[in-house]
Amino acid sequence: MDWTLFVTQMLNGLQLGVLLFLLASGLTLIFGVMDFVNLAHGSLYMVGAYFCASLTDFTGSFVLAVLLALPLTALVGLAVEFIVIRRLYARDHLDHVLATFGLILCFDTAVQFLWGPEGMAIALPAVLDGQVEILPEIVFPTFRLLIIAVGLVVALGLYVVVTRTRAGMLIRAGASNRTMVAALGIDIQRLFALVFAAGSAMAGLAGMMIAPITEASIGMGNEIIIIAFVVIIIGGIGSIKGAFVAAVLVGLIDTMGRSFLDTLLKVVVSDQNAETAAPALSAMLIYILMAAILAFQPQGLFPPKGR
Amino acid sequence: MDRITAFSPRGWSMTVALSLLALLPIYVAVTGQTFYLDLASRLMILGMAAVSLNLILGNGGMISFGHAAYLGIGAYCVGIPAYYGIYDGLIQIPLAVACSALFALVTGAICLRTKGVYFIMITMAFTQMVFYGFVSMEEFGGDDGLVIDLRSQFAGLLDIEGATGLYYFILISLLAVLFLVYRITRSRFGMVIEGARANERRMQAIGYDTYRYRLVCYVIAGAICGYAGALLGNFTHFISPEMMDWTASGELIFMVVLGGTGTLFGPVLGAAAFVLLEEWLSTITIYWQFLFGALLIAVVLFWRGGINGFVDWAADQIPGRIITRTRDWIRRAPWRQRS
Description:
The complex is a heterodimer.
Chain A: H1 3-34, H2 41-59, H3 62-83, H4 93-115, H5 126-129, E1 131-135, E2 138-141, H6 142-164, H7 166-176, H8 178-183, H9 188-214, H10 220-235, H11 240-268, H12 271-296
Antiparallel strand pairs in A: 1-2
Helix pairs in contact in A: 1-6, 1-7, 1-9, 1-10, 1-11, 2-3, 2-4, 2-9, 2-10, 3-9, 6-7, 10-11, 10-12, 11-12
Chain B: H1 2-6, H2 9-31, H3 34-59, H4 68-83, H5 89-111, H6 116-135, E1 146-147, H7 163-186, H8 188-198, H9 200-205, H10 210-236, E2 238-239, H11 246-259, H12 266-284, H13 288-302, H14 306-332
Antiparallel strand pairs in B: 1-2
Helix pairs in contact in B: 2-3, 3-7, 3-10, 3-11, 3-12, 4-5, 4-6, 4-10, 5-10, 7-8, 7-10, 8-10, 11-12, 11-14, 12-13, 12-14
């Protein structure tokens, strides 16, 4: 096997993994604390990307655009929570799913109305646009390295916030017993809004990170959100640690499967069969992984405690 | 008079609606507006799919967000044989039902081990798996889909190549599916499914293996939807993975909820409202999906009974009044007062 290709694809897998983590951690927090299924999480990923694209055009600086787009995406999240989501906490999951599905339609159309049907590319500053040689003979795009770094920093930051701060304590308390937290005099409504805004900002950040590579487009969140769901199912819904482990696992398996599955299959079956089966099989690999894990661990790898 | 009032209002309005559907081809033949025939065909096929989803979602409380997979599987079971030159409907349709049932059995066995939100997401993920599976099958068109050049053939017994033939085939299928689901929900089996939704622990405590009952129910729903998928493939002459995109599954749930969960005719009404709204709104603005989404949110927030609940209410109120008023008028009529 080609050594440089292997390392490059490992890094690509890791990059996909942290991106998934940015999405999945918000989803899993929102579910863990509010017991709310948010299909529209991918819409905030898209909104973040579009904000970032417009602001990059406007300010001329990608970094500045990200810093401005983050609070804007959080605001959109807050508004959505205030207008729609808030009324649904007491309802069952079917209502959550349906209403947020409606939100997706609204978001996709609103973005088409505001930004037009064409996608938007984001120009990167020269510093980030190049490639670096990380190991002898292995070059890797600087920006993808930055995505990995940002993802890891956010993961670390989230860990510190959740385990070391008062807000994090409330989040953990809310996840294990919502009613009790409310009974202790905590403004649960505010906590929910805060968590929703933070989750939105993280989803938006993921969108901003991927948009310079793929460009911002309508419906960009609808595909990746399903993979983010797979991640939180594998990790155990409500667990941030589970989301991280599962995100990296899914990112690596998906990327490695797409590049090396045909080579592996050729060992077992004929070349021709391997060539035809590999693309379909690698596309389904993470779902097979999910099914296998759920068959043994119906609650995921890190099942939530105290519920 | 008593005979009409004894006949339930819902049964009454449904009989009228179905008679109108049966007469539609005549109207189309007179006016030449084949568009309505296509619309009604699509509506009834989606209605069948929604009825099957309602069996697990409404009656069984299993919120499947992946029901469009069966539409796709059913359609590909028509398309792939047709690709190899096998047009025999007596092969294609049983194949569609069998493949859907098998897929439901395998995935259901895993999905039903989970509950609540896990179930929603895992059913969604399995459908996505099938979606990507078909996307990457270049042989059968991959992303671009597959054209079906000829509809299913039934050895000269039936001819569904023409729009009217297919229309009646779909209508009869819909009636059969409704009858089947009616019988299922009123059988002992259906009661167990309802019971498991209402209180699973009690059902288990009185000795029912709820997992098995649910799995059987899940397989039946999958098989029915696979059948609807086979009809959809025949109807559109074209199949693509797009049919089982997860938004298609969401739309099916919307139809069920819009019509009224857990009712017999609700899903058909929901599918009808969905298809007609889609047609109507898309003529108003190109941003019609925004209105559609907003409507969906509004339905969830404010209007839980669905259309079925509304029809029940309206049928109770309006025809009831019309009938009593007419009766009173007839009783008070001058020619009656002679004697």
